[in-house]
Specification:
- It is built from 12 helices and 12 strands.
- The chain is of the alpha+beta class and about 450 residues long.
- It has 4 domains: about 90 residues; about 100 residues, PAS domain (Beta-Lactamase, 2-Layer Sandwich), CATH 3.30.450; about 80 residues; about 160 residues, Heat Shock Protein 90 (2-Layer Sandwich).
- The strands form 3 sheets. The chain has a 5-stranded antiparallel beta sheet with strand order 2-1-5-4-3, sandwiched between helices. A 5-stranded mixed beta sheet has the order 7-9-10-12-11, with helices on one face.
- Strand 1 and strand 2 form a beta hairpin.
- Helix 1 packs antiparallel against helix 2, helix 8 runs parallel beside helix 12 and helix 9 crosses helix 11.
Length: about 450
């Protein structure tokens, strides 16, 4: 940013005061008239000669003062001309800087009247300079953005020096709206400006790209969800057929093959379920209902999904029986994924212990799940919530579970923390507000 000094070189404003010229002139004139009259009357007595001498005296005074004024004016006229030329050069330099700038400079009062507008307005919005100044800026703002902009400017007007960032659509001369982002600063207390300065630039191309990207993301999410849903049906059929084959066949080799086939199909089903869960979390609004955390955990254990892991672990649950307002689907996802990890990642050297504590604490649902399993290695701790990240001790995982947990907790406005040491176990602490904040209810 270039700052121009208000002190112009070679020009001292104190010397240009009219009194610096007028006072010496008056003083010289009074002294000359007072003393010259007495000198003339002392040496000359005739009335005619006195009249003639007074005439020459006046001519002499005018000539002398005229010469003095000439030299004085010549000196200051040079400085004034130099200053004027210097100012013109700076104005031309400043105009050249902003003429093709990507930014638009506007100065407005609190009522929206335009005090100053940069010359590049025609390049950005198509208006001529004087044409734009005839508008009130509120006339050009898109109706959907108008109230927010008015509120921002009202706030700025009441707070000298404050800077606010805004984004709004501005009417182009050809009739379409340009997205513009701007910084507005209050300079009403600066006499030289006496207004709010708006530095704005067009971001329509960026907005268009963002909207296209959002549309593509929605398309991709929909494709993943529908594809996962369509694939899940055949996989469930394969799981059913393998179960029948295992139960009815007495051939050891066939049963072994069917068992492996069933295990692979089960992993495919889990992966598809996880992809569907990610898409549903991103696309769906939260469905807030009264639900019981105790009943949710009981339903998870009754489905049998964790039964294989439960056979090799000692699970202790201390769950308070209470109800809260939240999304039961998301709550079930959170509980099932964290429990699955706690039961799955165990050591082979000791009895695997898992503890679940659920309580209502300070207006939040507090859940603490502890295990004495493999734990998380220090290098992995920063990335455990990343999609498809698999840590050193997670050979059985697919890198999706904790990403889903974090996404669901974020949507409910909650928090999650993990305290873990490698080969010593993990403690997962989750807090979810009992009344979901409004900002958590959104659709992507």
């Amino acid at each position: 940013m270039t700052v121009f000094s208000s002190k112009l070189p070679g020009f001292n404003t104190r010397l240009t005061s009219p009194l610096k010229i007028v006072l010496p002139y008056l003083l010289l004139g009074v002294l000359y008239i007072f003393f010259s009259d007495r000198i003339v009357q002392f040496f000359f007595k005739g009335e005619d000669i006195l009249t003639e001498i007074q005439t020459y005296k006046g001519i002499t005074y005018v000539a002398v003062t005229g010469i003095l004024l000439y030299f004085i004016i010549s000196k200051y006229a040079g400085q004034i001309a130099e200053t004027f030329i210097h100012r013109q050069q700076k104005e031309r330099f400043f105009d050249a800087l902003i003429e093709h700038s990507l930014d638009m400079k506007v100065v407005t009062n609190g009522a929206g009247d335009v005090i100053f507008i940069g010359q590049n307005i025609i390049n950005l919005l198509g208006y001529k300079h004087q044409e734009f100044k005839s508008f009130n800026i509120f006339q050009l703002i898109h109706p959907d953005d108008l109230n927010d902009i008015k509120a921002t400017i009202a706030q700025i007007v009441n707070s000298p020096g404050i800077v606010a960032a805004t984004e709004a659509r501005i009417l182009h001369k050809d009739g379409h709206y340009e997205w513009m982002e701007s910084n507005i600063v209050n300079k009403l207390d600066t006499p030289e400006i006496n207004g709010a300065i708006i530095n704005a630039q067009t971001v329509s191309a960026k907005k268009q790209t963002e909207m296209q990207l959002a549309y593509k993301n929605r398309e991709l999410d929909t494709f993943i969800y529908r594809s996962s849903h369509d694939l899940r049906g055949p996989i469930m059929t394969m799981l059913g057929l393998t179960n029948v084959a295992i139960s009815e066949s007495n051939d050891r080799d066939v049963n072994e093959y069917m068992t492996h086939f069933h295990s692979v199909a089960e992993k495919m089903k889990d992966s598809l379920d996880n992809l569907m869960a990610i898409t549903k979390i991103k696309q769906s609004k939260t469905n807030i209902t009264k639900c019981s955390p105790k009943r949710t955990i009981e339903n998870i254990l009754l489905t049998g999904k964790l039964s294989h892991h439960l056979q090799k672990a000692n699970l202790q649950c201390e769950v308070e029986d209470f109800q809260l307002l939240t999304d039961e689907y998301l709550l079930e996802i959170i509980f099932s994924q964290v429990l699955d990890n706690a039961l799955k990642f165990r050591t082979n050297t000791q009895q695997h212990e898992v503890s679940v504590q659920v309580s209502s604490c300070n207006g939040s649902l507090r859940t603490v799940i502890t295990d004495n399993g493999l734990g998380v290695a220090n290098p992995d701790k920063e990335n455990i919530f990343d999609l498809y990240y698999r840590g050193r001790n997670c050979m059985a995982g697919n890198g999706i579970g904790l990403y889903i947990v974090k996404s669901a907790i974020d949507k409910l406005g909650g928090t999650i923390s993990i305290n873990s040491n490698e080969m010593m176990g993990t403690t997962v602490t989750i807090e979810i507000p009992e009344s979901v904040p409004e900002k958590a209810e959104y659709t992507i």
